[in-house]
Specification:
By secondary structure, the protein is α/β, with parallel strands linked by helices. Among the domains are: 45-209, Rossmann fold; 371-441, Luciferase, domain 3; 445-546, ANL, C-terminal domain (GMP Synthetase, Chain A, domain 3), CATH 3.30.300. It is globular and about 70 Å long. A hairpin with a 3-residue loop joins β25 and β26.
Length: 549
Amino acid sequence: MSTAPGPYDIGLDKTPANFVALSPVSFLARSASVYPDRLSTVYEDRTFTWAQTYERCRRFASWLARQGIGRGDTVAAMLPNLPAMNELHFAVPMTGGVINALNIRLDPTALAFMLEHGGARVLLVDPEFSGVIAEALRLMKTPKPIVVDVDDAAFSGGRRIGEIEYEEAVASGDPDFVWTLPADEWDAIALSYTSGTTGDPKGVVTHHRGAYINAVSNALAGNLGLHPIYLWTLPMFHCNGWCFIWTMAATAGVNVCLRKVDPAKIFPLFERHQVTHMSGAPIVYNMLMNAPEARVARSSGHVVGLIAGAAPPVAILAGTEKIGIRLTHVYGLTETYGPASFCAEQDGWSALPVEDRAHLTRRQGVSYPLQESITVIDPETMQVVPHDGETVGEVMFRGNIVMKGYLKNPDATRKAFAGGWFHTGDLGVIDEQGYVIIKDRSKDIIISGGENISSLEIEDVLYKHPAVLFAAVVAKPDDRWGEVPCAFIELKVGASTSESEILAYCRERLPGFKAPKAVVFGAIPKTSTGKIQKFVLREQMQSAKAISA
């Protein structure tokens, strides 16, 4: 095949007229121009239009620029779902900076590592988390970031630890700040940390192109249309709110912000704002359908709910429909910008009984509209497994909705992309319809309430207990959380302890959501070489049911 320039190459170059870098910041500028007076954000008694949101983002971007923030500089945020958190996802990339949204449930040690590893230059903090952040800053050995307090009138408590308050910084900024698109759409836009199975968390780096594309994919897969009204039950720190922050700008919708998932607040918001869409882990929907104040979410029609994490039980699918929420199952990882596959509904499914429909809709499904592929591959041969629903392989992704790689970790990046595919570490099958179904996890990760928990991290704590000889942690199915950690413990000869003692020991050394919720004492099954057979323990706990049953 000739490599010489042909007629379709000569004189047909990229120019500013026919090629513009893809960036989700463009969505904000467009919505502010086309729909300046439409509502963009609602929080408590505060509202902003798209024109106002655009101005606020430009103002804060100018303030960041005055602090020296530019291309490749990290701006971290420890915030709940507030307007400021939404605005940061535009203001930071306007400067060329990279936003690092921190998990508000983490402890000071983990946060200190992330701030150091990511090189945060600026850090925004809600008063609720000022204590844990103050301790994280104390633990840092590298230069500390400029701290900005984000006060919230709806929260009482905490204290200011920053040099300036967010609204003061916004007010001091230039409303006409001239921002530019990235020189290269491959430039980093966000840094997110994911729990690893060993060692420190890995920093997932995503780019402007992927964020733009996944934002559009969300709109297509979730059938958002124009001007959706989105209730923020999903934490914005989870993979940048699964890119829905940018999706809402693309669709000129309304962000209904919510500080905390509280059914007593959520149901009135459904009706008051005529919410059309939401996202979350199974626990969110379980909480809503079992709340004392549970009622039909919208009198004018159903709410479309995207659900991720462990496959939703039939009870949740049926229960949410009774309160007017129709669920779509999505699947992805931090490395794929959040969901990058979904269970695409086929004609006739809606007419099926809920139990029959549940077995179809609980699958991880097919690729997002703008993701190239999700499939199941034999990691040894790198061949796609048969579509028989039985042959197990590793779930892999390929496409533009896959991370750049892991920050400062080229070895892990190369391993993740071996053979030209992103290796998820999840084990699954492909059924006759071509839908992916996860069967188990090769990574020792437990997904509880939408949070990733490393079983090895818990085991490290357990092994420090003086009575513990061997320890293993696996997922245990849970109606509320989807799954929770369960510890198997083999005691030292002559040693004794109790479940309550072990649970208290872990709660003292781990964040509450990571601590085991049950303990089983006895001999732990091992191979002839002494390797713990976790698959036996998973079978005993019926862990697979928490994933795909």
